[in-house]
Amino acid sequence: MDKILRGHHLLCVHGFRGMGYSPGFIKKMEQIVRDIRDLESDFDVRVRAAFDDACMACPHRGQTKCEANEGSNEHVLSMDNKVIQHLGLQAEKSYRKSELLKLTASKVRPEDLDFLCEGCSWLHYGVCKEGISQLRKSYQTVSES
Ligand code: SF4
Prior knowledge:
Layout: E1 3-6, H1 9-15, H2 23-37, E2 44-48, H3 72-87, E3 93-96, H4 97-107, H5 113-116, H6 127-144
Parallel strand pairs: 1-2
Antiparallel strand pairs: 2-3
Helix pairs in contact: 1-6, 4-6
Iron/sulfur cluster (SF4) is lined by residues 8, 11-12, 15, 79, 113, 117, 120, 122-123, 128.
């Protein structure tokens, strides 16, 4: 159940609505997202700025870097590093999933995605901002109850 997630995927998991780069990638993301959103389960997540569990199922994964298009590797790495820094995490360190969700809910506002995810082709759909907004609401509800 323990997972490896790259920095920007810590945000993607909240907005994922079944869209993706291939049927295999979508299936893998669905599994990851199901485990992340299952509030009954907690596990370790190793955070990194490099290939992760989702990348292993991505058709754009090259030998050593993302090959979706020219500049894509630098782009995903920059998003990873921005998210890791924004959340105050350290790359290659493991955190409990519950801790990561709480940190994301408290430190990331929907509008922060304009900077953190700048250049991502999914950003304009709005589902990622909605996902972050829902996460923040669910943590407000928990802290108020
Ligand atoms: S905008 Fe892109 S990088 Fe940001 S959460 Fe959505 S899919 Fe992930």
